[in-house]
Amino acid sequence: MATSSSAPRPAGPNTAFRKLRGALSPGEFAAAVRRAAGEIGERVSCDARYIGRVEAGEIRCPNYAYERVFLHMFPGRSLTDLGFEPRQVVRRRMPRTGPPTALCPAPSAAPGAGDIDDQEEGDVLRRAFMTGGPAAVASLATLGALPAAAGAARPGGPEAAAVTRAVTDLRLLDDRHGADALYRPAREALRAAYELLDTGARRQAVDDQLHADAGELAISVGWLAHDSGRPALARSHYGEALATARVGGDPALEAHVFCNAAFLAADTGCPREAVRAAQAGQQAARRLGSDRLRALLALREAGGWAGMGDRRGAEVALARAHTHYGRGSVTGAPEWMSFFGDAEFASLEARCWAALGDWPRAGACARQAVAAALREPHFARNTALYAAELAGYLTERGEPEEAAAFGHRSLDLLTQVRSARVTGLLAGTAERLGPARRDATVATFLERRGA
To answer: Which DSSP state fits 337?
Structure first.
């Protein structure tokens, strides 16, 4: 068994990692990394370029997903044995001075986009939000600053409370503002939460709370990545949350992860994976006694069956969802399910019928979603989404004027929120409405959306 060294590796090429590759080409080694990831349920988009960056020393410490894969590939070795620097050393080396160069640089979904080297960018983001950014993200910036402020001290109650507050605030911010403006500061807060978790709390109760809340924060950040058009990063965050759930033996967190993973799979054209994830979530949820949670997971499963064109499978899962929803109550649901009311249920059912090509039923359910959303005005992002979905279904039914009217309603709400998901839906609807532009309502919608 190899032994690890506590001395940090000098900057420069990672010769230790290069030796591990042996006679394999970078592409062949990257394929081996992807296979190893699959063996432990991880998802990494490793390619020859990423291996080259590691060997060149550009990646001084890998992100958590790659760390788990590398340690699985080379059991008995530590990160330093693999030629990386200790995570704590890399973080202490982060720059703490200098003007912010760019608040929101262009996002990248390339392999390694979540590497620890992105911490330099995070430091810029953190300063920007703490000194001049919106007050709404103050709790995220505060959390991001905690590990540096704490130094070598082990986290206690105040630090755990900060993570809990960030989870709650992030959900509220997403409801009101959408994902596009929140993903990057939320990602920095997540890194800070895992750094606190890595340090280890002084008391077991605090450590347990940090595990649960760090996992929930990872799910929230994964959702923001999904909603802002970064599916590969969403998968990585969900994988991180699932690992946290299983290490902590937390079935509630595990059910939540699988629920979101099923949604992401269905949304990215992987319906069979959506069914499997939803069924795994239902297995975990059986121990929790929440009918509302089981209803949501049944809806996720129905969406997967519908995506495969299996009407019977979708109908069975939908019937189960209606049964659980009728038995459940808001008070018996997990806190994170505050969004799941009548409007969301109707919207998810509408998506099932749309996937099956049943536009009349999709439109009817979507109308219910929009009507119910008017009773929940604090969910601005969801209301914009429901109106955009209904506009799309009406377009498919050959009702362009009414489709454009609901498109206008969604655009009204996009002055308050930013969601790549909603704007993408409206773009698709606008393209299909092109032939009907002689209608005044349609023409106005197309002009307004284009602007």
So the answer is: G
11: alpha, beta or left? (left if phi > 0; alpha if psi -120 to 50): beta
* Measured distance CA(314)–CA(317) in Å, rounded: 5
Domain boundary among 196, 222, 249: 249
First vs last Cα of the chain: how many Å apart? 63
Q: At what angle do helices 380-396 and 157-177 cross, to 10 degrees?
A: 40
Residue 176 has which token pair?
């009101």
Element (H, E) at 303: helix 291-307
Determine the length of the chain: 451
Same domain, yes or no: 123 and 243:
yes
Contact 44, 233 (CB under 8 A): no
For 149, other C-beta atoms within 10 Å of its C-beta total 9
- What's the pTM? 0.65
Burial-class residue 113 by CB neighbours within 10 Å (0-12, 13-18, 19+): middle
44 domain residue, yes or no: yes
Q: What is the DSSP string of 233-269?
A: HHHHHHHHHHHHHHHHT-HHHHHHHHHHHHHHHHHTT
Q: Which two tokens stand for residue 61?
A: 């410490």
Q: What is the per-residue pLDDT across 70-115, written as a single tens digit (0 to 9) for each?
A: 988 988 888 888 998 876 565 444 433 333 222 222 233 333 333 4
Write out pLDDT tens, residues 117-150. 343 333 333 333 333 334 445 556 556 555 555 5
Cα 188 from Cα 445, distance rounded (Å): 37
* Distance set, CA 222 to CA 30, 144, 255 (Å): 24, 17, 15
| Residue 237 and residue 221 in contact, taking contact as beta carbons nearer than 8 Å | yes
Q: What are phi and psi of 223, to 5 degrees?
A: -65, -40
Q: Can you say how many angstroms the Cα of residue 70 is from the centroid of all Cα atoms in its chain?
A: 23
Chain position carrying tokens 């995070």: 122
Do 148 and 35 lie in one domain? The reply is no
Could you tell me if residue 265 is inside a domain?
Answer: no
Amino acid at 117: D
